[in-house]
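Section 4.2 – Deliverable D4.2 (structural model, holo form)

The reporting period included a commitment to supply a predicted holo structure for the target in complex with magnesium ion. Inputs used:
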Amino acid sequence: MEKKHQQSEMEKKARKWLTNRGVTIHDIADLVFYLQKKYHPNLTIDECEYNVERVISKREVQNAILTGIQLDVLTEKGLIEEPLQSILKKDEGLYGIDEILALSIVNVYGSIGFTNYGYIDKQKPGILEELNDKSSNQCHTFLDDIVGAIAAAASSRLAHRAANVE
Ligand code: MG
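Output (structure tokens):
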């Protein structure tokens, strides 16, 4: 495994915000495992975590994390202007900008990320189910898509690496 890289302030912040919103690296690694286990029988959670870490070390991914979580938090506080406040609060299906923002993450490792992203968004396993629980007062309109996209991108990265060594 590669040496641990030096985290920028931006990366530290993005990681901290994810944790504050109840999402751990391990939660996202579980999603990667869910997506990839049938293709890589010897896959371990450690490998999944490693790939999630690499995805989060990308600047464009940190941008999406910070932007999305900021909008979720402002929505929770009721600080967004109407009509956007109600749209974000209700996580309206036709809004779609949350998915668009998440695509900036999926794009990082090429087009197979799209398939993984679409699939996991439909299935909503693990942490995605928790984030979609509308009974809480929290707003995760952007975060659920961001987490799914990080898992999809980490899966693509893992698949590309595996193809190169097998
Ligand atoms: Mg959403």
